[in-house]
Amino acid sequence: MAKKLKWNLILMSVLYLALGVFLLLVPGTALNVVCYALGAVVLVCAVIRGDRSIIPDGETTICAGDHAIIVSSAGKLKTIDGIVDK
Question: What is the three-state SS of the chain?
Fold first, then answer.
């Protein structure tokens, strides 16, 4: 049991190091990967900006003070709460 745990921890460490190197070498690509992964989990249905409602398209930017209406699978909102400031 301890030997298996040791190898799992070594593997996780190597993967985290590889991820860190990837993030340092190609930050733009890394940002795209994170955005696509988040996009696979959630769908922004509308953005409320002041007194306007905006149906987002590929060019819509969510700005400070905006409110977003998000649809997601059950259990995925915990992930979003860690990324988006309330």
Answer: CHHHHHHHHHHHHHHHHHHHHHHHHCHHHHHHHHHHHHHHHEEEEEEEECCEEECCCCCCCCCCCCEEEEEECCCCHHHHHHHCCC
Q: Which residues of the chain have pLDDT under 50?
A: none
Contacts of 73 (CB under 8 A, 6+ apart): 41
pLDDT tens-digit profile of 4-15? 788 888 999 999
Query: Hey, what are 61's tokens?
Result: 């930017």
